[in-house]
Structures are given as C-alpha cells and as structure tokens.
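Inverse folding, one chain.
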C-alpha cells in the first residue's frame, strides 16, 4: 500500500533524552584527647623539628592524540585509477579500483600500496571490482566475473602498511550481471548482516520478480547464508523493485536509506523497509498511489545520479556522479537537500571514517569524466553541521 515514507520516518524518530544528577557528600571529623594521669616532669624544650618540602608527584606526559579532521576539504590521496569504494579495516582506509581489480591501502600521507588483486574480474562498461567492506578480519568484495556478479571474502593478514589478502571464499555467486546496472554496493548493517545492492542488468522486469536476485537489496549472513528473519522465506531478497541502487546507509536509530539511479526522469532517495516494493519499472520516482513505496526525495538525473551515501550525525551525505556534488540531507527534513561540496568532478562514494571525517571519492577516470593530472582523488573533511 502507498506510504508517505518521510512522514513515517519523522514520526518514528525518538528525541534524545539527557539525564543529569548531583550527589552531595558531607564529611564530619571529631578528635578528642584525654589528659595524662600523672604530670610529666619538667624538661628542656626539644628543638623544633626540621620540616621538609612536600615531594611533588612526577609529571606525566599526556598521551598523543590524533589531530582533529580538517573542517575545510583537504586532498588526502591522488592518482587513483577508477576507484569505486572505500572501507576501513580498523583505522586503515582501503580502496577498490574498478578496472585494475586492485585493493589499495592508504598511508597517513596519502600514499597507496597494493594489498592484493581480485582474480577473475572483468570490467566491460560499468562492471568490474565494485563495492568492498571490511568486517572483523575479512575483506568482502562484490565484483563482475564472467557471466555473473559475485561476492567473495578474503582474510586480511598482516599489520598496517603490510596488509595482504588471503585465499578467496565464495559468499554468493550467480548474481545476474551485465555491462551496466550491476548495483555493487555492500555494507554491514547494525544487525551484523551483510547487505548487497544489485541492478536490473538491463532487464527491468527482473526487479519485480522476487525469485530473481536482480534489481534488489539482498541481506545475507556473513557466510552467505539466509537469515531466518528475512522477509521472504528461504530468500536473500530484502527489498525489490529497484533499478540500480549504489548507496546504502543506516542512521543512529537503525533506519536504512538507499540512493537509486532512475532512467530518464527521476533519481531517488528511499527509506528501506523489509519486504518493500519500490516500484521499478512500473514507477520511476513518486508514484502517488498503487502498491509501491515512494521515495522521500527525487532529483533529475542531470543534477544527481547518486552513488555512495553515508549517515553522519543528523544528516545523510550523497555522492553524485553527473551532478558532480556532495549533497547534504537533514534526517528531520528528508524532502530537501543542499550542496556542501563541489568543484572536484564526479563523486562516486562517501563514507564516515573512524576519525569522524567524511572521506569522499572522486570518479573522473571512469571513462565518463574529464580527469586532470591529479585524478582520481580522495577528499577529506568534517562537515560543520
């Protein structure tokens, strides 16, 4: 049934309550002395005791702390080749490159070192090594192989500066693939489950077929199994009716959001509900009726083409490709947005780092941009809001 997702979401959000208290302690001390039973014989007064200055406690050096993230956009890394996704293994940023199939770790100075390459990647059109997600001691990777998209995981061994990928383990195979509309974003939700977005692979009708993995958001156990509480029995499908979702994120309340490429009319920001039908191909953008869930915001593709998204505090941040801007959306006003970063060309991904900064990935070397000599880059800053 149709829903007004923005209104429902606002009604669900709970105010944050702060509690404070005060504790007063009162201490009372009493001392009493009794006179000696016999008077003491007179004697010369002893010399006054020598008093020593109290010993000062040794000064402890403060623990070194990391500098705060910059409030103005700062270029952290340059020279990346069609990068697609950023994730963090502890405090180490890892980046996937779509066409080279390389996974890179970045140093504090922005230098890039190859952790490993993903075997079997093919990269026609928009396909290739797409989303990556670090979880516990594994790196998960979504990529296009011959005739299929796959999710594999690799043990992450070694220390920062010397990380290596272990042998591949298949998490999920035989996801429909094509040169375009492969989805490809993966992330672990607050429930500890792995979520993966898939595209309609240029077969729009597959998005409405719950028996197909195309045009969906999938929910998996970390080993690839089907969670018992998924909305469809014995199925990895979490939501359907999607054309090409490339961004997923959760706010502090656990609400899930997704950014979605439209065709010619509307791109979308959606609040994701378990088992929800988001309308494609019957509806693009607001349907205003029927059995589909409407987006909470829509944009013309020329000003958006949204890819990765991140939740940071009370806002969502959306990386836009054709729109070449980073969009900010307040969680209490999901129907409006503003531009907070532009001038860097196409933007593919944005994530919140362990330092509290936003890490933004440009995508000017993907065959559709106009790269300069420093592209592609990672931009890092802490938004002021």
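Residues assigned per position:
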């Amino acid at each position: 049934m149709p829903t007004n997702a923005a209104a429902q979401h606002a009604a669900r959000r709970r105010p944050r309550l702060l509690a404070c208290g005060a504790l007063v302690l009162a201490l009372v001390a009493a001392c009493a002395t009794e006179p000696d039973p016999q008077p003491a014989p007179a004697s010369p007064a002893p010399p006054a005791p020598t008093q020593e200055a109290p010993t000062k406690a040794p000064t402890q050096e403060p623990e070194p702390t990391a500098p705060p993230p910059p409030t103005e956009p700062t270029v952290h890394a340059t020279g990346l080749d069609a990068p697609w996704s950023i994730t963090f293994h502890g405090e180490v940023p890892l980046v996937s490159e779509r066409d080279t199939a390389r996974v890179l770790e970045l140093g504090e100075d922005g230098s890039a070192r190859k952790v490993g390459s993903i075997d079997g990647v093919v990269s026609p059109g928009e396909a290739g090594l797409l989303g990556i997600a670090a979880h516990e001691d594994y790196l998960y990777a979504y990529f296009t192989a011959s005739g299929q998209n796959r999710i594999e995981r690799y043990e992450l061994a070694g220390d920062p500066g010397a990380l290596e990928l272990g042998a591949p383990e298949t998490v999920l195979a035989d996801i429909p693939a094509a040169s375009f509309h492969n989805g490809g974003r993966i992330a672990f939700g607050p429930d500890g489950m792995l979520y993966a977005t898939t595209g309609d692979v240029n077969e729009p009708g597959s998005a409405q077929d719950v028996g197909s993995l195309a045009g969906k958001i999938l929910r998996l156990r970390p080993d690839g199994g089907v969670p018992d509480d998924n909305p469809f029995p014995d199925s990895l499908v979490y939501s359907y009716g999607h054309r090409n979702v490339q961004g997923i994120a959760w706010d502090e309340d656990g609400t899930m959001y997704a950014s979605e490429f439209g065709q010619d009319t509307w791109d979308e920001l959606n609040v994701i509900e378990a088992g929800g039908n988001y309308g494609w191909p019957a509806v693009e953008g607001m349907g205003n009726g029927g059995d589909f869930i409407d987006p909470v915001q829509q944009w013309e593709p020329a000003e958006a083409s949204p890819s990765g998204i991140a939740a940071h505090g009370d806002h969502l941040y959306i990386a836009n490709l054709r729109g070449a801007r980073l969009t900010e959306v307040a969680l209490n006003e999901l129907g409006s947005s503003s531009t907070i970063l532009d001038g860097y060309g196409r933007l593919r991904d944005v994530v919140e780092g362990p330092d509290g900064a936003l890490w933004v990935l440009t995508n000017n070397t993907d065959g559709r941009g106009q790269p300069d000599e420093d592209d592609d880059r990672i931009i890092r800053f802490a938004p002021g809001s």
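The first helix runs from residue 5 to 12. The chain has one helix and 24 strands.
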